[in-house]
Amino acid sequence: MIDPSNSGQDLVRCDLCESPAPPLHCDLCHTNLCKACVAEHVSDFSKEHKVVQFSERGANPVYHKCSLHSGKECELHCTKCNTPVCCLCVSEKHQKHTLSSILKTYTAIKAKMKKDLERQLNVLRNYENRASEIDGQKSILEGKYEKLTTDVDQQGKILHREVDIFINERKTQINVMKIHHLATLDEQKQEVLSLISEIEQSIQHVNEMLDANEVCRISAYKSNFAFRKPPSQLNFSLPEISSQEIISKQFCKMFSDLLPLSFSINEEKDEALKDGVTSSYS
């Protein structure tokens, strides 16, 4: 197990014995080697080896092996045939063809690749920063939308309170009208009851006269027309609440306006992020 205090030093190990900080490297096999393991590694004659200092690994280009001439490296490129060739290939089939140094092309493309790599690393950092910015924006938006929801709830409470006040006022008005209406009916009833009492007394008086059957009293009787008029009836109309359809648009006007959500793209920053993301090499 690697000691955390020496993790930087032990990051690279010999691929054969796992000794820390190997000083050598085989460029052709891409193998890290300590001095003790070099002999064992190069003893494998089934493939070529090129052992260099670890600090110089990858400094020398690895040429393509010629498929026609064993052991030869293709250090040239035939423009006409568009193929890598070795020195023996040139003398045999490519003497009059235009040749160029593969190393020159390799060096130019490698320099371009390094520039592209640097640019892409910068772009990667930009995208990583943008990802962090988005997380920050999301955190801010959570707070903003929570406040919007709270504001709507608060406006709803205010509206509910106003509606409750209005409803209570209406109920009070209705109750006052009811009391007045009942009092008016009670007054009319008292008048009717009083008239009933008078009529009953008159009926009793007539019956007594008839029962007595006295000529003098009956001869003096006069009809009473005061009760021939039927009792007056109090006409009334109950109050009504005019039913109106609640229109959503009118109801929404009671709340503060909610501006629509809008987006805008920072095209200049967007282009900066995209610049250099893709590259191709032949």
Question: How many DSSP-defined strands?
Answer: 8
Give, in spatial order, the strands making up the sheet with the most strands: 2-1-3
Cα-to-Cα separation, first versus last residue: 43 Å
Write down the secondary-structure element order: EEHEEEEEHEHHHH
Helix content: 40-55%
Report what the structure shows:
The chain has six helices and eight strands. The chain has helices at residues 38-42, 87-93, 102-212, 215-219, 248-252, 267-274, and strands at residues 24-26, 31-33, 51-53, 64-65, 73-74, 76-78, 83-85, 99-101. A three-stranded antiparallel beta sheet has the order 2-1-3, with no helix packed on it. 50% of the residues lie in helices and 8% in strands. The chain has a domain at 1-60. The protein is rod-shaped, with a radius of gyration of 56 Å. By secondary structure, the chain is mainly alpha-helical. GO terms for molecular function: ubiquitin protein ligase activity; zinc ion binding. Keywords: Coiled coil, Metal-binding, Zinc, Zinc-finger.
Which short descriptors sum up this protein?
282 residues; mainly alpha; three-stranded antiparallel β-sheet; 6 helices; ubiquitin protein ligase activity
In short:
With 282 residues, this protein is mostly helical. 50% of the residues lie in helices and 8% in strands.
